[in-house]
Write a structure and sequence with these properties.
Length: 109
Amino acid sequence: MRRRLLFLYLLLLLFLNLTPRVPSSPVANGDKLAHLFEFAILGFLGWRLWTYMLPLPVLLEFLQLFVPGRTFSFADMGANLIGFTLGLIAGWWYEGSHEGTEVSNEGGD
């Protein structure tokens, strides 16, 4: 289930980062917060596959050079990488804190 969710989220991330239309934010530097948040989710969902996911925060920003109406930004790339790293840490911590917990209650109440 988690891999399916990761795959669907990757498709959404590709769409959001590579469409010509850029959504505007009512908050100053809101796009940086959006980048941070969307890549934190990617890191959280795909932390076990982090070595395969690591190029995405950089690659998706470079691919925006070829999309009309989009621009490349080192600040966005930094927000992508910070968000991804925070998501990795959160995913690793979450999995570790739930390791060994009982999933079902077969003999239960």
